[in-house]
Amino acid sequence: MQSELLRADQQRSPESRLRPDRLRSDCPVLLSQRLVLRAPHEDDIDALAHLANNAAIATMVSRMPHPYTAKDAADFVRRSAIGEIGKCVYAITKGDNGAFLGCCALEPHPGGDTLELGYWLGQPFWNQGYATEAAHALIDMAFRTRQIAHIDARCRVTNIPSRRVIQKCGFQFQGSGMVGNIAMGGMMPVEWYRLDRKTWMSLKSWGDMR
Ligand SMILES: CC(C)(COP(=O)(O)OP(=O)(O)OC[C@H]1O[C@@H](n2cnc3c(N)ncnc32)[C@H](O)[C@@H]1OP(=O)(O)O)[C@@H](O)C(=O)NCCC(=O)NCCS
Question: Where are the domains of the chain?
Answer without folding.
Answer: 31-206
